[in-house]
Amino acid sequence: MLRVAGVGFGYPGRQVLDGVELSVRAGELVALVGLNGCGKSTLLRLCAGLLRPTSGQVLLGGDDLARLSRRAAARRVALLHQSAPAVPGMTVRQLVRQGRYAARGPLGMLRDGDDAVCARALADVGVAGWADRPVDALSGGERQRVRLAMALAQDTRVLLLDEPTTYLDLRHQLEVMRTVVRLREERGLTVLMVLHDLGHAARFADRIVALRDGRVAADGPPGRVVTPGLLAGVFGVAGRVGLDPEGGWPVCYPDHPLPFETVVERDLQNENHIH
């Protein structure tokens, strides 16, 4: 459904992505991981049609996103940004309705009331009972669920999430991750998400794609990708990897940071690079 074909992107004086190749199949949940600044969020914005690649293409169902208007792209791909400024006085209902802009347009947004898509989004994330509460009165975890409902209100088949668990405590991190997994199954969504926590990626994703210096360093199922070589080559730490005794997913035990110049790139590729 989503293909990143040889994509490069940069800003004046700084190349961010360099020849990235990535395919996400329909219904798949893929986690993007890597150090800060490696290009994860930039890649998501390219996949949402908010940025145009300087080389290569981002294809959605065979269509080049660069040829679509932003509104047309938003009718096909929903992006939940890492953070968004609070709007004083806005209610949960009003915020979630903002997700309908791409479908309803400026005139349609003037009509009062929720449509069926909005009502379903509120219900699916479990926030319908808060519809008339001010967003700025909610906790961080509650606010993130509301923002997820706003993304669902775009009513797309592709959902992009940029670090949806950032700034949340452990309980709310798990709540958000389990909600995403449930919605993916119930709605048949294709999900590409940036995750800061490698443990969450290993537990919940079908595949992990690791970026390093703007390139794909590893791509494959968690059980094959999450290794000591990945910890060293992508995250710059020495560590061990075991298996959860009940679920069987990889569990990381980082020990200490490594200087990157001591990492042998050949070992990383031999151990982790899977296509």
UniProtKB/TrEMBL annotation:
> Domain of life of the organism in this record?
Bacteria
List the GO molecular function terms: ATP binding
ATP-binding as a keyword?
Answer: yes
ABC transporter domain span: 2-238
Which residue spans adopt a coiled-coil conformation according to this UniProt entry?
none
Specify the species.
Answer: Streptomyces pyxinae
- Output the InterPro entries linked to this UniProt entry: AAA+_ATPase, ABC_transporter-like_ATP-bd, ABC_transporter-like_CS, P-loop_NTPase
| Cross-referenced PANTHER family | HEMIN IMPORT ATP-BINDING PROTEIN HMUV
* Name of the featured protein: ABC transporter ATP-binding protein
Keywords, comma-separated and alphabetical: ATP-binding, Nucleotide-binding, Translocase, Transport
